[in-house]
Amino acid sequence: MPTINNMLSGTYSLYKSSYANGTLFNNSNSLIGSSSKQDSISTLWNQYSSFKSNADTALSGLSMISSNVSSLVSSYDKAKNTFYSEFDQTMSDLKKSAENIKSYDFNVGENALTTTETVDADGNKVTTTTKSDKLVAALKAVEDFASNYNDAIDFFNDNSDVSKRIGRMGTMFGDTTYRRANYQSIGLQVASDGTLKIDEDKLTKAITEDPDKVSSILGKDGLAGKAEDHISVANNQRDRLFPSAQTLIGNDLTTAAIYTGTSYRNMSNYANIGNLINIMF
């Protein structure tokens, strides 16, 4: 493609040649030497103005595209940053609670749960159950772990439409359904998506009566250990979970980028000068 300087040089050479031969401004032969040729030069500039107007309109439309693309990319970056911020926080919270459960001592003692009976003012018997601080702490540790595990499942399921990798993470964390019977035996109800719901009375009974079983099902060889394996896989996949802007937005992003930079404006300048030359000569 010729440069603007080359095109201008060519135009200047044609101008000099026409001037020397008396064809451009000579009273008898020039474009402005008669009314008909005055009409011709008027038509020339009108046509050129039309070309320029069309080019300006095109550039205006492309400027709008450029603005929309910038807005779209900005929204993509915001969504991506939000995703990774939530991902990191979710994995961090689950990792901490899983580490706590792995090493937790569920042997809360024989007197962790005591029952007393009293009679109220109306003569009715009232049974009061008191939990020791150790038992309350043990229940809280399991509740926190279950809550963080549920947050991980919900996070990946809520974002599963963003990429297939994210969807697979949700399926991986939801594998608690395969050991539903084990978890339910100690008071952890398992929903169809793998999320956990605690039956506090049943969990309390399991901790006070068979703490070793609770440790086995939830500890390093149980759900907490499995959670850490899942976290490791998710962290290894981290940078590939959220798709690129090209993948998410599509080929229109590349197409728009081609026509929204200075290159198109340069092409438009070439076209305008070329149109003028074609009309004049």
List keywords for this structure.
281 residues; mainly alpha; 2 domains; elongated
Summarize the structure.
The chain is mainly alpha-helical. The protein contains eleven helices and four strands; from the N terminus they run ααββαααββαααααα. It has a two-stranded antiparallel sheet with strand order 1-2. Strands 3-4 form a two-stranded antiparallel sheet.
Would you kindly provide a written description of the structure presented here, covering whatever features stand out?
The protein has 281 residues and is mainly alpha-helical. 69% of the residues lie in helices and 7% in strands. It is built from 11 helices and 4 strands; from the N terminus they run H-H-E-E-H-H-H-E-E-H-H-H-H-H-H. The strands form 2 sheets. A two-stranded antiparallel ribbon has the order 1-2. A hairpin with a 5-residue loop joins strand 3 (188-190) and strand 4. Helix 1 runs parallel beside helix 11, helix 3 runs antiparallel to helix 4 (164-173) and helix 6 (200-209) crosses helix 7 (211-218). 16% of the residues are buried. Residues 1-19, 21-34 and 272-277 have low confidence and may be disordered.
